[in-house]
Amino acid sequence: MKNLNRNIAVVLFAIAAFAIVVSFSSCSDKEKTGPSLSGDEAEKVYVAPGKYDEFYYFISGGFSGQLSTYGIPSGRLFRVIPVFSVDPEKGYGYTEETKPMLNTSYGFIPWDDAHHTELSQTDGVPDGRWAFINGNNTPRIARIDLTTFRTVEIIEIPNSAGNHSSPFTTPNTDYVVAGTRFSVPVENRDVPIDSYKENFRGAISFIKVDKEKGSMNLAFQIITPPFDYDLSHSGKGPSDGWYFFSCYNSEEANTLLEVEASQKDKDFIMAVNWKKVEELVAGGKGTMMNTRYAHNVWNESKQLATSEIMTTVKTLKPDELEGCIFYIPCPKSPHGADVDPTGEYIVGGGKLATVIPVFSYTKMKAAIDGKQFDGDVEGIPVLKYDAVLAGEVKNPGLGPLHTEFDNNGFAYTSAFISSEIVKWNVAKQEVVDRIPVYYSVGHLSIPGGDSKKPWGKYLISLNKMTKDRYLPTGPELTQSAQLIDISGDKMKLLLDFPTIGEPHYAQGIPADLVSPNSVKIYKIEENENPYAIKSINDSRVEREGNVVHMYIAATRSHFTPDNVEGIKMGDTVYVHVTNLEQDWDIPHGFAIMGNQTSEMLIMPGETCTIKWLPYKTGIFPMYCTDFCSALHQEMQGYIRVSAKDSDVPVKYSLGTETK
Amino acid sequence: MKKSSRILILIIALSLIALYFVPLWNISLEAPQYPEGLGMQIWLSKITGDLNIINGLNHYIGMKTIEPDSIEELRLMPYIIGFIILFGMIVFIFNKRSLLLSWIILIVLIGTVGMYDFWTWEYDYGHNLDPTAAIKVPGMNYQPPLIGSKELLNFNASSMPATGGYILFAAGIIAILVLIYEFKFNRTGNAET
């Protein structure tokens, strides 16, 4: 009997232990996926083979310097658009045509830290024409043409250092802006670092965008107190004509910013009446200052880039802009400065704050008119916090960063520290829902979520950490974003998907606003590249002293010519390959053994040029790298490199025809 | 001829003017790699569509390049159709059944010769292949059908009349019906004017 009791006790203990193990393991599963999985998620993100996604999503590549194109809701990666970083796969930054795109006042810079995607807008709504993106490190703004998905323009921003508060647009893409993250001496010069308050200033640049062509032109800079400008948004609707820039480090610290720039209870959102500034500039205000910055433009018909160094910029000081600039106190070290779809509310994302302040544009105007000031900073009036405040969102999560909006009057704020997204009612400033994200969300994005007309439906959480979400890949893990369904009252996690670089920020747009305009081929008769050949019969090899130009035609499945002799050591060889195909999705690639530049991918109707400095004598194969046809593997040839003093004549051939 | 017959003849003749503005024939190709299809439209005096792409693909099987400039028929066809139109107007004006008969014989003759010529053209391109071609399939020829579809390696080739072809067929059939009516049911011949 005693034994039996003991046996029963052992069995009960075993069952209890098993139950604990089971409940633990199910508990950890639950924690990993979040509480909201309900079973129909797969259906909501499944896009059947051959079917199209509902939205294009343009996700910044962060420190990769590139811009990636995803389909949402599937989370499938379509294309990585090279922007600020070289891409030897495509030849971007290596071909003679694309090298000027990466020129700066510091010379050729092969990389940048891309942060914020911004789609061009018409009447406050994304129009699918261009995407802008900022280079944070060597201050630049790039424009990507959404008919070709190629970078067509890059403008450097002088007097700026850390182009973070950028490239946010006005409702009609009149301007994109560039507020500096690092204040630096304007113009930059050799001064003691601890002379920060005296010598350093924050430049806010306004880049005018041509309405038809999209081309950018640095119109003017406002030179403000030496704060760190973080993010920005333009007003819309009633607040159209204003820009709002968040800034931290109003302490004006130049060392140990993590502590020194976190002392004040409030920093600022700077409100700039850009329409008024524009009028003053048109009226002759401002001084031209000598500077140097690169302006690089891709010529679509010539299929090549040119880089021009510009030498002057118009600057304005706050005392020239009376009534144009005001500081709104904002707790604490704000990141986001986000304007709701109605244009009435301006939301500050104080990343060390315990509340989300919501400012009212109407109250701001009244405070300005009633001169409700709380002192000034270098002549810029500081508005009274309470006079501008519409309300505070209590308990918004820890580390609120960035807010976007849906089409039903709700705002969604990312909270980095508590790793969650908080949904709240804009007019009532009340939290209505929250959802954990994995892990530590930075920006978030809703299609049209910063515009007048959010399409809503989905929210993308752009996370800073990935940890255990995927199979591990050593210390360096994939970067990741998460798709959240916001169509109902409760947010629902649908999908995790890996991203390139750091998915810093993203913008989405319904696919039908972009896809019908997508270019399929470049028309060969419109190819004005100076080294283009329009027919196989024009292919040739020409020597001009030590420079050799090879004009090669690529068609399925051979190069013309495919045997070249007469190249000598010491020559500089330019290989101009024209893809004569006029057929959709038939690119050719081109590579030479031992070439220290790169390969290149040549789209139908395009001409690309790669430079080759022969490294030693011998026979060097060249071949097509992009699988073009059943006889792609046969698309190959030879180049003979002879000694410098040899007398091998230039000779080139295809098949039995020699020239 | 009856007045209605004459008017029909005029309409037929005038409707042929449309042939100068729409394609006669359409050859379309579909393949796994070309879900959107490739097309070639034959007009009175030109060939349009994805000719360059089709020529590019055809070189693998050694087919001759299709060069519209060297196709004599494209030069002649506008004149032939012009003559038929003119003749139709003469039939209308002079109102003679014998003229109608000759006109229709001419149309049928030209139509038949035209189709035969098209067939030999297709035969020539489909059979006379470059012996050094990369892709050689023993016993295979690449002649598209005159009308209908046929599998040619990875391509499904369809050959069908286009708008102009249908106009031409309709014109021929209506003209023959008018002829039958005039000779069978309207014995009074030229009585009604």
Summarize the structure.
Chain A has 659 residues and is mostly beta strands. Chain A contains seven helices and 47 strands.
Account of the protein in words:
- The complex is a heterodimer of chains A (659) and B (193).
- Chain A has 7 helices and 47 strands.
- With 659 residues, chain A is mainly beta.
- In chain A, the strands form 10 sheets. In chain A, strands 6, 7, 8, 9, 10, 11, 12, 13, 14, 18 and 19 form an 11-stranded mixed sheet that branches. A 7-stranded mixed sheet of chain A has the order 42-41-44-45-39-46-47, with no helix packed on it. In chain A, strands 36, 37, 38, 40 and 43 form a 5-stranded mixed sheet that branches.
- Chain A is globular.
- Chain B has 193 residues and is α+β, with helices and mostly antiparallel strands.
- Helices cover 51% and strands 16% of the residues of chain B.
- A 5-stranded antiparallel sheet of chain B has the order 3-2-1-5-4.
- Chain B is elongated, with a radius of gyration of 20 Å.
- Chains A and B meet through loops of A and helix 2 of B.
What labels describe this entry?
heterodimer; A: about 650 residues; mainly beta; 7 helices; B: about 190 residues; alpha+beta; 5-stranded antiparallel sheet; 5 helices; elongated
